[in-house]
Design goal:
eight-stranded mixed beta sheet
């Protein structure tokens, strides 16, 4: 996962971006948006650039506007991947940020959400965060899941998912190529029937849902279409 697609068009991180704020939740600094009294919560698990990405926070705010309490934890502990650090390329960085660990870190966050009144919880991931959400989707801790351009997920990982799940992959993606997405679809359809939705989105590349260029109208429209699918999926399976 060290090729150009994974980290192309990296965001300019802004700790002050978004309409929400940062607070501790489940022991982690987390960007939160929406009313904490909502009975429906959404957990967003970032890609390698972390929870300070403005487009990710913008999406969190968009979801919160639909009545959810949205949480974006800093699963990277203040250490997002930085392209400019030549001495620490992605394979080296990943040794300190194994995707599996985020699943363990997510457990106290989920418990914190339940403790403040969340009765149903959905989780969505981007790239690096997919492994965490797939494991959550097998744990009984959440009610629904969405994966955007997943990485580090195998067909064996998908086996055992037992809640409604949507997966949107990119046509141009060497880390989760369309062939692999189709295998996910075969497994999930056998397991879940109509409670799964899997699509390879044409003419988009890995990362398109959160690393789009605001100056590119087609890229913005493609990202927005994916966001609307997420909102519709959670409206059906979380609310």
């Amino acid at each position: 996962m060290s090729g150009p697609e994974c980290c192309s068009n990296p965001p300019i991180l802004d700790p002050n971006s978004g309409a929400g704020h940062v607070q501790k939740l489940g022991g982690l600094n987390s960007y939160v948006s929406g009313l904490s009294c909502s009975k429906h919560a959404i957990l967003l698990v970032s890609e390698v650039f972390g929870y300070g990405a403005p487009n990710l926070r913008k999406l969190a705010d968009k979801i919160a506007a639909k009545g959810y309490y949205v949480v974006v934890p800093d699963f990277l502990y203040g250490d997002p991947f930085a392209y400019e650090k030549a001495s620490r390329p992605l394979p080296v960085w990943l040794k300190d940020h194994e995707p599996d660990k985020a699943f363990e870190d997510a457990k106290p966050v989920i418990e914190a959400l339940k403790s403040i009144g969340a009765l149903s919880i959905g989780a969505a991931s981007f790239c690096w965060g997919a492994k965490c959400v797939v494991e959550l989707a097998k744990s009984g801790m959440i009610q629904s899941a969405v994966l955007f351009h997943p990485s580090f997920v195998t067909v064996d990982d998908i086996k055992g998912v037992n809640i409604p799940i949507a997966i949107l992959g990119a046509e141009i993606d060497q880390y989760c190529p369309p062939e692999l997405v189709k295998q996910f679809e075969e497994v999930l359809t056998a397991q879940l029937g109509d409670d799964c939705y899997v699509k390879v989105v044409p003419k988009v590349s890995h990362g398109w849902t959160v690393r789009y260029n605001m100056e590119d109208e087609a890229a913005v429209m493609a990202a927005e279409a994916a966001h609307q699918k997420l909102l519709a999926w959670f409206a059906e399976h979380v609310r």
